[in-house]
Write a structure and sequence with these properties.
Strand 10 and strand 11 form a beta hairpin. The strands form two sheets. An eight-stranded mixed β-sheet has the order 2-3-1-5-4-9-10-11. 49% of the residues lie in helices and 20% in strands. By secondary structure, the protein is an alpha+beta fold. The protein is flat.
């Protein structure tokens, strides 16, 4: 077999072996069999909360096992196809087999990164908040570009996006927006995007065609399950209602259906306006507040890990995590990992996996180093 095929085969097999070790393969298979048997027990649903937790655990474990098994099956099929094409001297078919191996190798690399998503809430859905910085229309437009970028990333990965709140800018873009991204490991991937994002470009709003720098912040926190105990004293929460803006049906701008909750001790504020009724928006806002306080608790747990804590404190205005330069040259560069690309349009269209993967690997490495030093 040709050297390029052998090299791809070795790389994929190495990834599969690494995935098996991280999953603790044989115990994982036994655990999955046990969970499948428990799912068949009719009495399981006597406790709906417990049943849902078990189903979620089963689904996540089954997905990890299937990811490894599908890589093994597809590798065997591609190698068989390549061998047959080589024997018959069919270069076109051999090229197809090589393309298949390349795709399998990319899947294996992503699966390796997903195996790092072992945090308590990594498998959960995510809330994503985007806020424009100082700079008026310029920053509002940049925040709108980020909103589009994350929506496209989620759609490309088969995730559902629900718009919970959006405040539009006077001339363009948005002042702020909150999304809920629903899909496997949504929080695990998106958490690497939290921080300040900087854009440099020739402004489309400047008649003099001068170069402008704009900032916008992105904050990500996990959607938490109802069975996670987060105690919130109602007297610590201020509730404000206001009229929703934007699309939403005949009741928009006619009733004070939008809800904003402010947790006074921490200053955390959340808002929801996408539902038709104030009651529905209030329920969603409470879920968001619960998630924010849970994420705050997770941050406290990480405080002992010096590397991660240093990274978290750097997130603020003037401490951007990534720069998007569209003029005088084309470059997107992550300042944490040094990953960069000249394909600025691809990134703005949602091609974020290289940046997320590098940041995730760096974060996991820092966590392991901190634990080793403890």
């Amino acid at each position: 077999m040709r050297a390029d095929v052998e090299a791809a085969k070795a790389d994929i097999e190495q990834s599969i072996e690494l995935l098996r070790r991280r999953l603790d393969w044989e115990p994982a298979l036994r655990k999955l069999d046990e969970l499948n048997a428990r799912v068949e027990d009719p009495s399981l649903w006597d406790d709906a909360g417990k049943a849902q937790a078990l189903m979620r655990e089963r689904t996540q474990l089954a997905a990890k096992v299937e990811a490894v098994q599908s890589l093994e099956r597809d590798l065997a099929d591609a190698l068989g196809y390549a061998e047959m094409a080589e024997e018959e001297g069919d270069e076109a078919a051999f090229g197809e087999a090589c393309a298949q191996l390349k795709g399998i190798k990319e899947r294996a690399a992503r699966a390796e990164l997903e195996a790092l998503l072992s945090g308590e809430a990594d498998g959960n859905d995510a809330f994503v908040e985007i806020n424009s910085g100082a700079g008026g229309t310029e920053s509002n437009d940049w925040a709108g570009m980020l909103l589009r970028m994350y929506t496209r990333w989620a759609n490309a990965h088969g995730m559902e996006v629900e718009f919970l709140e959006e405040t539009t800018g006077e001339q363009a873009g948005i002042k702020s927006a909150t999304l809920q991204v629903k899909g496997p490991n949504a929080y695990g991937w998106l958490k690497t995007e939290a921080g300040v994002h900087r854009l440099v470009r020739i402004s489309p709003f400047d008649a003099a065609a001068k170069r402008h720098t704009s900032f916008a912040s992105v904050w990500v926190y996990p959607v938490v399950d109802d069975n996670i105990e987060i105690e919130i004293n109602p007297s610590d929460v201020r509730t404000d209602t206001y009229r929703a803006s934007g699309a939403g049906g005949q009741h928009v701008n006619k009733t004070d259906s939008a809800v904003r909750l402010t947790h006074i001790p921490t200053g955390i504020a959340v808002a929801c306006q996408n539902q038709r009724s104030q009651h529905q928006n209030r329920d969603q806002a409470w879920k968001m507040l619960k998630a924010r306080l849970y994420e705050l608790e997770l941050e406290k747990r990480e405080a002992a890990q010096a590397a991660i804590e240093e990274q978290k404190t750097d997130i603020g205005w003037g401490h951007q995590i990534r720069s998007y330069v569209l003029q005088p040259y084309q470059m997107v560069k992550d300042l944490r990992t040094e990953v960069e690309t000249s394909d600025t349009q691809g990134v703005l269209d949602g091609d974020l996996d290289p940046f997320m993967g590098a940041a995730l690997a760096q974060r996991v490495g820092a966590t392991r180093d901190a634990k080793a030093d403890a």
